[in-house]
Amino acid sequence: ATLLPTLASPVLQLPPPAQWSVLTRAGAETSWNGSGVRRVIASYRLQDPDNVEPAELASATHVYWGSTEQFLRYRGRLPPQAVHACGAGKTAEALRRHGIEPLVFPSRREWQAWLD
């Protein structure tokens, strides 16, 4: 909903959402209900990474969330002062619902550049 006015801008020349197909995470298909998108396809599933140590999470100062599910899985393992970032859209809305005002970036790469 946040991006609909931008997506409808004539300069982008995008078809209406009723003509779109969306690729999303398995389990997130219903989050597209009511969006007007024609077809929603679950194209991947999140797995817990083998290489993330609990101590790394406990000492994280900045975190970029790629999805709401990631946030819900790992938020309890982070220090309260961690700075949260994500893209605009559903993840940012979910963080706000949980009392976090995230830093919003157009991509993870932009966030990483900002950190440097």
Architecture overview:
This protein has helices at 4-7, 54-58, 68-74, 90-97, 108-115, and strands spanning 21-25, 39-44, 62-65, 83-86, 103-104. It has 116 residues and is an alpha/beta fold. It has a three-stranded parallel beta sheet, covered by helices on one side. The chain has a two-stranded parallel sheet with strand order 1-2. The protein is globular and about 45 Å long. The model has no long low-confidence stretch (mean pLDDT 88).
Instruction: List the strand order in the largest sheet.
Output: 3-4-5
Helix content: 25-40%
**Secondary structure tally: strands:** 5
Number of helices: 5
Q: Which segments are poorly predicted (pLDDT under 50) over 5 or more consecutive residues?
A: none
Shape assignment? globular
User: How many angstroms separate the termini?
Assistant: 32 Å
> Given the helix and strand composition, which structural class is it?
alpha/beta
Rg for CA atoms: 16 Å
Mean pLDDT: 88
Major sheet summary line: 3 strands, parallel
How much β-strand is present in the residues?
Answer: 15-25%
Order of helices and strands: HEEHEHEHEH
Notable characteristics:
116 residues, alpha/beta, three-stranded parallel sheet, two-stranded parallel ribbon, 5 strands, globular
Layout of secondary structure:
Blueprint: H1 4-7, E1 21-25, E2 39-44, H2 54-58, E3 62-65, H3 68-74, E4 83-86, H4 90-97, E5 103-104, H5 108-115
Parallel strand pairs: 1-2, 3-4, 4-5
Short description:
The protein has 116 residues and is of the alpha/beta class. It is built from 5 helices and 5 strands. α3 links the parallel β3 (62-65) and β4 (83-86).
